[in-house]
## 1
Amino acid sequence: MATTPVLDMLLLPVFVLSALFAAAARAAFVPTDNYLLLCGTAASAAVDGRTFVGDAGLPASALSAPQSAEANASAGSAPASGSGETALYRSARVFPAPSAYTFAIKKAGRHFVRLHFFPFPYQSGDLAADAKFRVTVQGLVVIDGYTPANGTAVAREFSVNVTGGTLSIAFTPTGKVAFVNAIEVVSLPDDLIADSAQTVNPKGQYTGLSTQALETVHRINMGSPKITPNNDTLWRTWLPDQSFLADSSVTEHKDVPPTAIHRASGLATAEAAPDMVYATATEFNTTLLSLSTISVQFNMTWRFQAPLGSAYLLRLHFCDFISQAANTMAFNVYVGGWSVLQDYQISVDTQGALAVPLYRDFVLNAKDVTSNITVTIGTSTLGNVNPDGFLNGLEIMRMVGSTGGDGAGSSQSGSKKTKIAIVAGSAVAGVMAVMALAFFVVRLRRRKKPEKKPSSTWAAFSASALGSHSRSRSFGKSSSGGTRNNNTVTLGQSAGAGYRFPFAALQEATCGFDEGMVIGVGGFGKVYKGTLRDDTRVAVKRGNRRSQQGLNEFRTEIELLSRLRHRHLVSLIGYCDERGEMILVYEYMARGTLRSHLYDSELPPLSWKQRLDVCIGAARGLHYLHTGSAKAIIHRDVKSANILLDDSFMAKVADFGLSKTGPELDKTHVSTAVKGSFGYLDPEYFRRQMLTDKSDVYSFGVVLLEVLCARPVIDPTLPREMVNLAEWATQRLKNGELDSIVDQRIAETIRPESLKKFADTAEKCLAEYGVGRPAIGDVLWCLEYALQLQEASPDSSGADSTRVVPGIATKFQRNQSTASDGTEAMSANLGDLDGMSMRRVFSKMIKSEEGR
Ligand SMILES: *[C@@H]1O[C@H](CO)[C@@H](O)[C@H](O)[C@H]1NC(C)=O
Ligand SMILES: *[C@@H]1O[C@H](CO)[C@@H](O)[C@H](O)[C@H]1NC(C)=O
């Protein structure tokens, strides 16, 4: 194949698919469970942009606290903090006997439980003198013997993994009374706390974090002022670090505008910490460093008080906006005096990208916490890097479940369960409270934000029936009130087809966007499984309504997708822009992502032939993108999670949606900020910010390796040289060790010639420079050849191979392709090699018959 610069010029990308990272950063998290209670009052209060509602309006059964009293702070005794937080401390509920709140939980998983305490004089005494108590959450003691200090407002924050349908918070007085001023119970993203982390001493791996209840003891934003809850998507507070620095003379503060931060999928999400945390850092004093000789080393250390007797999870947040180039800085990291990262180069973790946020988690054993917990950054002794170092943020979380000497062990869950059972048995009234409380809160919110219920005037809805009445652009746009004006979607005239669904139809199809229907979550929003009235199954992607970025992508996806029709591209059925919504409706791909069939799931391994079919299908989809229209389209986020499979394992490329139409181009490449997914990124694109269709070919090569090896593209749990699939596998291939990397579950069934062809193809796709890589059409040809080589095998009469006469198959294929999608003109060029499509049709028929 002759890929010359001239050829490259003919393959000009015109639509630039982009903006993935920025979208991920901006799509605000919406907690499924979101209870904000003011205790001991009927009033509600707006605090930091959220509304807390009083618990006094609850029916008597709503709280298992038969004798609780409402208490109000007399004027002047509430803390004189400048923020709206004061409103949380004007009242309290006082418990002379054991009492519990029970919350109905809609979505299992990790939740924040925040308890607010501020003691003040009340009817029969003074809380500061009378209160001493224990608090349990789900039966686990989280606060024991708490005696609040006079005049001090305290917020205690826990994060608890809720597995059942309720969350119980119980208060037990150990002195005269217990009390609480306000309670928050808020869903957290599932990926916020991973199950495993590196242990500090000895170095190893801790697993079982996901069942641990954690208490936030310190949450620090290095190098910048306090971040208040309304500046954090999870309403957290981040304090500045100055007062924790052991010696501030060796440090200085650095910052960049938050917009300079680029999120990358697979690393820190927007919920991990706000941009403001990553955009500021405490760095070594660079003047000091520049005056020193290389041999002089420095440490900067932060000290934190933390209760003894517990293990701790430490999360260090890093974002290298300081280095001018990748791999030019390394430093050491110590926790509690133990080295946890030696000569750490952040840009290795970010694959060379700068200003990309990430965090590293460490577990410190209870026995290793003897006084303060220290975190130290030290200069590296490596000769070829800058002696420098910095830290952006730090969270220190007490592992509440891990009492006793040995914190590093996941043996807690058993004892925790029995405790839950005991509490549940002793608080029968609490169960009654569940429904009442949930109802109450919901009702109140409804009242606050009245939403005009959509009229049920829409008729039975089906994708096929839509054509006739779908273009009426005047529908509904102005009816949903002015509040969302700036988000109202107006599609350009060029926006082609695309059926416009009434919001109510999609609400019905997804059972009111029920969490149980969620089949995927991305930067853009959530994807729900839905069923239209005519039983058509659909995938409904609901965009975040607040993001302007999302709005552009929404438009682009509609415009792009309604112009692109291909058997191997996931098709758009319609959209909904009613009431400021940004909803896209796609055909439903029953078997999910290719990734889920390769690893990290329970699904049976795909056969080699199935894998080849899937790769061929995906390559066709990409080939169509690159060459099918007058102007080439670069997908830009090719990965196994963006290749979806239908009922009969036919592959379709998805998610060219977070994209925008680029400017008209008459250059050979698009120059753009690096975007895409880690582990798949074209190194040339990284280095030169040059995007060509060959960037997709590189990413596709990584997908081929995933298919071959059935392992994740980045697996941080593996030894260093194995972490990155592309690096590791190409090295092995270069050494002629193909057999050692093949998915061992199916290695026996693969014919060596087919395997060799496939591996060679993958290797070519991964050539360092774009010009060295084949065009996707050549890749397609090679894969089809690999399939033929496998089919030629005498052993191939296995489960799913259906033999056909190639000549007939080819004809059939051509007919079929003109009938069902005239756009697939390219298949004709491939001539006789295209026989497998026929087989696919057959196997589909066979499968669906079996299924009936
Ligand atoms: C926090 O948010 C407020 C508005 O809600 C804004 O005025 C302020 O500048 C923000 N502060 C930081 C540190 O981002
Ligand atoms: C930096 O701190 C670590 C951990 O406490 C210690 O082992 C190391 O000797 C210190 N280095 C310097 C130069 O002080």
## 2
Amino acid sequence: MEAMGVAAALGLLLLTAGGSTGDEAREAAAVRELLVRLLGPGPAAAFSVSVERSLATESGLDTYRLSGGGAGTRVQVLGSTGVAAAAGLHRYLRDFCGCHVAWSGSQLRLPQPLPAVPEELTEATPNRYRYYQNVCTQSYSFLWWDWARWEQEIDWMALNGINLALAWSGQEAIWQRVYLALGLTQAEIDEYFTGPAFLAWGRMGNLHTWSGPLPPSWHLKQLYLQHRILDRMRSFGMIPVLPAFAGHVPKALTRVFPQVNVTQMGNWGHFNCSYSCSFLLAPEDPLFPLVGSLFLRELTKEFGTDHIYGADTFNEMQPPSSEPSYLAAATAAVYQAMTAVDPDAVWLLQGWLFQHQPEFWGPAQVAAVLGAVPRGRLLVLDLFAESQPVYVRTASFQGQPFIWCMLHNFGGNHGLFGALESVNQGPTTARHFPNSTMVGTGMAPEGIGQNEVVYALMAELGWQKDPVADLGAWVTSFAARRYGVSHGDAEAAWRLLLRSVYNCSGEECRGHNHSPLVRRPSLQMVTTVWYNRSDVFEAWRLLLTATSTLASSPAFRYDLVDVTRQAVQELVSLYYEEMRTAYLKKELVPLTRAGGILAYELLPALDQVLASDCHFLLGSWLEQARQAAVSETEAHFYEQNSRYQLTLWGPEGNILDYANKQLAGLVADYYAPRWRLFTETLVESLVQGVPFQQHQFDRNAFQLEQTFVLGTRRYPSQPEGDTVDLVKKLFLKYYPRAVSF
Ligand SMILES: *[C@@H]1O[C@H](CO)[C@@H](O)[C@H](O)[C@H]1NC(C)=O
Ligand SMILES: *[C@@H]1O[C@H](CO)[C@@H](O)[C@H](O)[C@H]1NC(C)=O
Ligand SMILES: *[C@@H]1O[C@H](CO)[C@@H](O)[C@H](O)[C@H]1NC(C)=O
Ligand SMILES: *[C@@H]1O[C@H](CO)[C@@H](O)[C@H](O)[C@H]1NC(C)=O
Ligand SMILES: *[C@@H]1O[C@H](CO)[C@@H](O)[C@H](O)[C@H]1NC(C)=O
């Protein structure tokens, strides 16, 4: 079979999961309602939206068709599904109206009358699926969302053509019913679940107990949200992926069933066994299919099903045995528990395990997992394909269908970063791989709300066979749409960012922010980057030059803050290098100068700039947490969950600063005090003539970190100060320094 043939055949096999023709009217209505939310009722009336299944290609691929527009004529948007129609609408707004739909502030100024589509335009996607989310996005980004925020996100998903996404909320409420039915006590269940901010890892069996228990109100609220999320996703014709049983069970199951065969896994992520080392049910134990089907039956009774289920047994955890027969049995057990309840079940597996522990997952081990499920029934997410694609070394997942996913972001970190060239080429290369079984493209960031340009490109690629021909031209038009005006300096700034921070490749290329700004200081910090810092400083200057024209654009102000933030991140590295050099040479004056500027001036100035934009406020993140609570005790508990996630991650800084963010409040009260302590400790060391002791410093730093986490200070949840004034002030003071290093 030639390359496209294999994927198309598998795509067809998976098509059974799609919606039926009877839903056309419902899907069209959902897109019309989206239009009203996006543009308001007046402008929305200038569009006519319909859904016709027959528009799909012969092999069933999503298609949209645009026509009409111009004076006195409505714009006609036709889609094979609601999602396809929404993607067509987005295409029209983007390419004909120059609009931009964005997390950081949409630009939706419509030309009047609406531009005509000169020739009927029909576009089909090359793949069955456009996937969205990572199990961790649920914890790093969606954690405290209410329905209003979810609604916005599902609109964003539809406009970007996403037709497959996790719907992960509320699963603990279902598990609670199952465990109670199995004879566990409420106290045992409460002891098992993690707190809200760490559920992603509880669900994968990495953690239990830590930062829990979940209050009853949490379960109720998540059940309510999940129903609304599912209704809305389905109304667009999206396929929500529900969770299934992967094999992890609470320890208390062994109290109720003393004969049960469980294996205790090793510890995870520097957590000890009080919080990790979860119990895995043996695949041949009769309880395996029982627990698995109890859960799936209860879940689908509550929520219905679209027949695709996610489960990850060995995510970042070494299996108890590397015997292929064991791995095959463990995999088959998960699949059989699914099909016992839903004979049409397709299993969505995160392929992260294969690339995270390549030394364990040799060819025999990978083959055991991939071969344990009938071909076409295991849908693998090649999760980090822009950097370490797994399909290339597994013969396209040995014939199982896979989705080429860009992971891009770890921990929801800020920090300008992207591998745009690799993202741009990746899906096409994967499609042309010999006997490719690629059936989709996807975005699987651990956290969202940063580096929007990367997501905009990836979303477009979901509807294209070929890479964007000229990324320079593409990013130029991206900037013009984003700000609503073409501005030479702003566009030049974006081309500089493209060739530097967004053209990442090689060793130092990290989606995870390791800037000294957000890390506990030491004398061994790495400051090398994959780009020329001058490009960032020059982009900063150019954006500032454009402020007089563009300052009224919210996305522009966001970018001005974000690039200033990045410039400060670069400056921190440069001042830190000065400090280290001075310290090693035992030169007190340059040490105090560099350390003094960094800790007492630069970071407080950054905090002020961040405080001027609603997207960079610790206060609004913590306020969301508090709003999710039904009592002051709960509000305090939720806030502490949030503070832990952003900083220490575990009780002792177990995964310290992994989910670092650069937020107003966090910079002033967490990062800056740590840098002040470091500066003072080094100065003290030179003055007293005693060596710097990293261990002692770490202990003292931990005290500061913990004080922040346990603190109760309230931070503003509304922006304060004028962004442009604050950026100018910072620029005038530091730009000369930036370019003279
Ligand atoms: C795990 O660490 C916590 C502190 O973080 C401690 O209280 C607990 O005793 C430890 N448990 C084990 C099993 O070592
Ligand atoms: C328990 O499960 C393991 C792993 O599947 C298996 O090797 C072992 O034989 C089982 N033990 C018993 C007593 O059934
Ligand atoms: C592709 O599949 C065909 C038919 O199964 C096989 O003969 C051929 O060797 C495969 N090509 C590669 C490169 O694996
Ligand atoms: C990115 O870098 C590569 C070399 O590593 C270069 O060939 C390519 O042109 C660069 N792309 C952009 C958009 O600057
Ligand atoms: C970085 O860019 C600046 C300004 O364009 C240039 O002077 C410098 O040589 C570049 N540095 C490197 C290492 O390429």
